[in-house]
Backbone:
């Protein structure tokens, strides 16, 4: 009873049957352009002319007053509010139906402040709203979720004036409280409702799903006697969005057994569930049902199918569906046209992100280029995906073009899009451009700071990363687990052991973040760089992490660096127990053995690889020049300029030897003559890419090369001497980090 009394007092001036919202204009900002001006934007070209013709006939016959409400309804349905208001003024005595129709027109296009203004005016003129009027007003109030006072006030007015609360009106109030996140009020109201229909139960299930109470929502669902399709959709979709995909899958099978018909939303939800679990067979079964039911023409179901095949790695099937997207050639009205535009945009976006997720970056770039040429609207999700493709492929120029495109179309840079652009510039080798975006950002949250810290780490700028991290803390921004991965990586790459240990303790003790595999791996790398191999063993034991393969892989790299063969063999055995088909341990251990000329052991390791069917990924390097990507593999002769490349490379190696370079043959694991090993190393893919870059660009131009594997010791030395001899900055991105070679030195400090 106290709850009811509170609602009847708050925010309302007591007048008999008279509603007055206090300071409506202060609570909800009025639309910049009034509904009079914007009505033409929303006009329906089919209904409005009919209404005008009928209006003219009624004026001629003097029957406007009789048919006023019917005319008003036609104008409102055409979404021409300017004509609707003119018609309303012509009605001699507007009744509750007249007011409700006009209010519904404003609510339909989201003019919340106008809805409340008309509702107040209606009361002032002595017209009492009915239940439908109140439902429309409450729905409009829920658009302003940050201020629940008005909706609570309307609820109080309903109680005070004794309005008969049927299921529809109760559901409107219940839905309002859920949308405004007033879950306590919603729960109380639901308990007091004498008449509950399926909609009431669905609204409450959704409220528990919103606050993450999965058990309560499922219990409520089980209590529901008559479950309609909407009930099944609500619970399955909510569970899936809260990360309970397996429970959602069980309920989907229950739904099939129970027998309610799937609607377009059910098919979309089911396809999203199949894609989130990567269950291709389920996706295919749903596809079959879509064909049987005959909803394949629905654009949103179609897009869900495209997205499912993309996420399950079936890009060819996704492409086949994409090419036959069911868009109507002629649309009847603006709303259908907008739906088609959304469907088309989502379809293109799914294909772009699908190619990115499946590592087909070149296809992603081509699809995006076609999307822009076809003048399809590009949303921020698509832009984020394409920047990810540019970052992964290392195509800086294309990334810059996309950045320019964003400026041209006027897309605002929120923190997530801004962090994607920073990530693109960082991974394409242009740290300076990343700094420019970061410095220009007005709203810097933890995502943006973390992107820049991680960027500095990747480029070996450990001190800058530490400075940035400390500045972030001073600004009062709380770091997350990704922030700590970034700063620990920075400390690892720069050899800042003391600082790294400090941040690892800080993460646990000050912020209560439990370390994950990435954090542990960074710490092992830090200890390894400092040569503290025994401390790594203690660290693994003390933290109970012998099951983390990334930790053992980092440990093995440290053994290679410090040429500790016995410990390397022990580490390799532990690693192979976890990942017997990973090429890394075999290659690293055979390299360690070859360094010490233990050819028999190196041969045994290679033999073990062959027995287990483990194949080494071929090294590949690429360089982008004038919007074209040139790829190379070891000993590659496929390039049109291969003769010039090999000729120049032979000449360059000769010049480098004059200033002290000598081929380091330790990466060659075969027991062959020294001269043969020199030949095997002389034409590694990164050397070919760098040679091509040198002969194709002006003197002094920086060269940026990407490689899919770790740079070998000999190539690292070769690039250092080349940067010294030619006075060129050479940037190489390998699988772990960036190497900036300048004046004979590398930013990694010869540790990578």
Residues:
């Amino acid at each position: 009873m106290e709850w009811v009394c509170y609602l009847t007092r708050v925010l309302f001036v007591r007048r008999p049957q008279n509603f007055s919202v206090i300071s409506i204009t202060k609570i909800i900002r009025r639309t910049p352009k009034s509904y009079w001006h914007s009505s033409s934007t929303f006009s329906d070209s089919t209904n409005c002319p009919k209404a005008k013709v009928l209006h003219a006939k009624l004026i001629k016959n003097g029957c406007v007053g009789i048919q006023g409400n019917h005319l008003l309804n036609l104008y409102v349905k055409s979404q021409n509010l300017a004509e609707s208001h003119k018609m309303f003024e012509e009605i001699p005595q507007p009744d509750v139906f007249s007011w409700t129709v006009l209010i519904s027109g404003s609510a339909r296009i989201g003019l919340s402040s106008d809805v409340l203004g008309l509702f107040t005016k209606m009361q002032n003129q002595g017209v009492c709203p009915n239940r439908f009027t109140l439902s429309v007003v409450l729905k409009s109030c829920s658009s302003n979720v940050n201020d629940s006072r008005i909706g609570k006030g309307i609820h109080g007015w309903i109680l005070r004036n004794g309005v008969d609360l049927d299921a529809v009106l109760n559901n409107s109030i219940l839905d309002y409280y859920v949308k405004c996140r007033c879950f306590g009020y919603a729960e109380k109201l639901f308990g007091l409702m004498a008449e509950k229909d399926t909609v009431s139960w669905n609204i409450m299930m959704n409220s528990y799903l919103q606050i993450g109470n999965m058990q309560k929502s499922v219990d409520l669902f089980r209590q529901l006697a008559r479950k309609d399709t909407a009930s099944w959709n609500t619970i399955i979709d909510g569970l899936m969005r809260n990360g309970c995909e397996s429970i959602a899958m069980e309920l989907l099978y229950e739904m099939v057994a129970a027998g309610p018909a799937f609607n377009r939303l059910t098919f979309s939800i089911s396809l999203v569930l199949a894609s989130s679990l990567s269950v291709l067979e389920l996706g295919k079964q749903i596809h079959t049902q879509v064909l049987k039911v005959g909803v394949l023409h629905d654009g949103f179901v179609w897009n869900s199918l495209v997205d499912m095949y993309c996420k399950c790695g079936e890009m060819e099937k996704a492409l086949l569906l994409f090419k036959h997207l069911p868009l109507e050639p002629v649309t009847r009205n603006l709303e259908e046209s907008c739906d088609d535009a959304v469907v088309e945009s989502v379809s293109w976006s799914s294909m772009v992100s699908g190619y990115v997720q499946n590592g087909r970056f070149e296809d992603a770039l081509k699809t995006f280029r076609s999307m822009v040429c076809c003048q399809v609207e590009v949303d921020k999700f698509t832009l984020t995906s394409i920047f990810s493709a540019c970052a992964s492929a290392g195509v800086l120029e294309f990334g810059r073009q996309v950045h320019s495109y964003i400026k041209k179309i006027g897309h605002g840079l929120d923190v997530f899009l801004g962090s994607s652009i920073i990530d693109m510039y960082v991974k394409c080798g242009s740290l300076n451009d990343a700094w420019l975006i970061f410095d220009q950002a007005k709203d810097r949250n933890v995502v943006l700071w973390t992107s820049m810290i991680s960027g500095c780490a990747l480029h070996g700028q450990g001190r800058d990363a530490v400075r940035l991290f400390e500045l972030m803390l001073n600004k009062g921004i709380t770091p997350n687990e990704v922030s700590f991965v970034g700063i620990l990586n920075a400390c690892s790459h720069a050899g800042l052991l003391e600082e790294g240990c400090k941040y690892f303790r800080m993460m646990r003790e000050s912020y209560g973040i439990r370390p994950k595999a990435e954090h542990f791996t960074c710490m092992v790398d830090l200890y390894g760089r400092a040569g503290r191999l025994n401390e790594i063993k203690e660290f693994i034991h003390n933290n109970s992490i012998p099951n983390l393969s990334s930790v053992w892989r980092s440990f093995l790299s440290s053994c290679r660096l410090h040429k500790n063969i016995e410990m390397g063999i022990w580490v390799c055995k532990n690693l192979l127990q976890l990942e017997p088909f990973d090429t890394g341990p075999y290659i690293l251990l055979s390299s360690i053995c070859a360094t010490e000329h233990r050819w028999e052991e190196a041969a045994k390791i290679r033999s073990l690889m062959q027995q287990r069917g483990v194949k080494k990924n071929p090294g590949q390097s690429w360089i982008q020049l004038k919007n074209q990507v040139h790829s190379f593999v070891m000993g590659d002769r496929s390039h049109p300029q291969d003769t010039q490349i090999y000729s120049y490379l032979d000449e360059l190696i000769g010049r480098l030897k004059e200033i002290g370079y000598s081929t380091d043959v330790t990466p060659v694991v075969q027991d062959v003559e020294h001269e043969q090993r020199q030949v095997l190393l002389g034409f590694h893919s990164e050397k070919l890419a760098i040679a091509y870059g040198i002969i194709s660009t002006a003197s002094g131009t920086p060269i940026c090369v990407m490689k899919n594997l770790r740079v070998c010791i000999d190539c690292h030395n070769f690039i250092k001497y080349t940067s010294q001899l030619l006075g060129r900055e050479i940037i190489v991105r390998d699988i772990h980090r960036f190497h900036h070679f300048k004046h004979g030195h590398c930013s990694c400090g010869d540790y990578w």
Notes: Confidence is low (pLDDT under 50) at residues 1-46, 329-337, 668-679. DSSP finds 40 helices and six strands in the chain. The CA atoms of residues 18 and 169 lie 19 Å apart.
